[in-house]
Amino acid sequence: MATPQSDSSLSPLKTIAVVGLGTMGTGITEVLAKAGREVIGIDVSEAQAARSAAALKTSTARAVARGRLTEQERADVLGRVRTGTDLTAAADADLVIEVVPESYDIKHQVLRELDGIVRPETILATGTNALSVTRLAADSARPERVLGLHFFNPAPAMKLVEVVSSVLTAPGAVAAVTDLAIELGKEPVAVGDRPGFVADGLLFGYLNQAAAMYEAKYASREDIDAAMRLGCGLPMGPLALLDLIGIDTARTVLEAMYAESRDRLHAPAPILKQLSEAGLTGRKSGRGFYTYEAPGSAVVVGDALTPLDGAAATPGRTVRSVGVAGSGTMASGIAEVFAKAGYEVVLAARSEEKAQAAKARIGKSLDRSVGKGRMTAEAAAQTLDLITPAGSYDAFADVDLAVEAVAEDLEVKRQLFQALDKVCKPGAVLATTTSSLPVVACARATSRPQDVIGMHFFNPAPAMKLVEVVRTVLTAEDVHATVREVCAKIRKHAVDCGDRAGFIVNALLFPYLNNAIKMVEEHYASLDDIDAAMKLGGGYPMGPFELLDVVGLDVSLAIEKVLHREFRDPGLAPAPLLEHLVAAGCLGRKTGRGFREYARR
User: Fold this and answer.
1) Whether 468 is catalytic
2) Predicted confidence (pLDDT) per residue in 370-426, tens digit
3) Which listed residue (132, 208, 276, 506) is catalytic?
4) Cis peptide bond upstream of 460, omega within 30
5) Burial 5-15 (b: 16+ CB within 10 A, else e)
6) b/e 251-274 (16+ beta carbons within 10 angstroms → b)
7) Residue tagged active-site, from 150, 266, 456, 564
8) Is 506 an annotated catalytic residue?
9) Three-state secondary structure of 302-353
10) pTM of this prediction?
């Protein structure tokens, strides 16, 4: 059970005023009161101040019901909070945290008024996530005591707090609020003053690209969101997250970032302006990218854009047997997936030995599943029996679907598709697992480009639920329908996208990773702070540098080069630091050193 701290354990910041009692201000008030602080909540609206007090009563009652607070502790927490509309109530505060709307005019006015109210030593913290802390501080009578203290929503649950100093901020003020954040049970990350700081600086560029991708009708909102949840393990898809944050808020943040960086990746997608000006700001208005049950509701309801359930208009082709070309981790994983679903699988490699080794790898994987109780030994043996290794692609003569998972090299793939064209029977579907190369180039290496499609599995294929289904302008409708049906049978979630670099996941993921590298190059934040910020503030399962080292820096560089070449956007140019590390042979975990060093096995 969480017990509020006694007064003797508190830092010098004992009395804290929170100005602006919206969702964030109310959450911060709760965090402070539970940690033993005296809190003065102030809002220009009497009704909003009352709603904030009511929300605190409700949340603490819920905490009692869940055994996280006793009734006495709840009474103590509520007793430490007083709310009102008069800014002069902040006169006794050791620290004031403003979380008023993201507007220079409003924030300047609040800070100027506070200058005439608080004691000279009182620290003034702005909760902005988009505006310049330096600009806000410069207008204050004592700029050395102004800094940024950026909590994340919902403040009681989210661990990250970004402590933002400007060139004017006194080190003592930074130390005091950093200590406070630790005492609140938060993890403070020290960052410099630039729009978006670390977490939002990386997050909003990604959200903006997702909005632009949707606006271009490249993929549906459902497929974009499912791709990022299932392909990257994110708690929410980007368009659903924009609706939660507020599309108007996101637009404001991006405009501030673009004004500073002039990076086209930060220039707000036009759809954000259109939705904002139409009042379609997301959950709070009841409609944004999605439609909600009511304003403020999290429940999505169907609308004109919701995909219809039911059978596809075009029936697919019959698939009983599958050929998998390749002998690496991806090829063996895909073969395992198809065999588990009951398909007869021919696993072909450049030699019989390589194919046998790939089958043996599958056997070990199945044994691990048996050991974990996920399947019986009998089912594992039956699955393995469905896989026939072969040392030649001639063994694909009778397969209904051929899936290649060979090296990510266009010439290698073209040669393979030329071979498949000669070997596979008429009507067989030919699929490539490429993650970044043009599917149409593989298709044109055959005499039947209408039968060629992309099936981008994610590694490890047995565990990852996502498959990006990539149609070219030449792909036949029944071939697309066939692959969708097959994905359902192998229990994968298929998302549709067109044949352009990166498809959905890599096109959104790698610019984000590249921007993280640029932050380190510019000495803006450390690897550890950036990784912590994205895990704690964005809910990412791994920080960007952890992920880069797992993926492989050479693989990451190759994908970033493909994206830069296709979209011709200067902001997508690979960060020089990434190129230097690859040139030095520091490729991540597989070489024992990438952005970090690893113990060699």
Assistant:
1) yes
2) 999 999 999 999 999 999 999 999 999 999 999 999 999 999 999 999 999 999 999
3) 506
4) yes
5) eeeeebbebeb
6) bbbbbbbbebbebebbbbbebbee
7) 456
8) yes
9) CCCCCCCCCCCCCCCCCCCEEEEECCCHHHHHHHHHHHHCCCEEEEECCCHH
10) 0.89
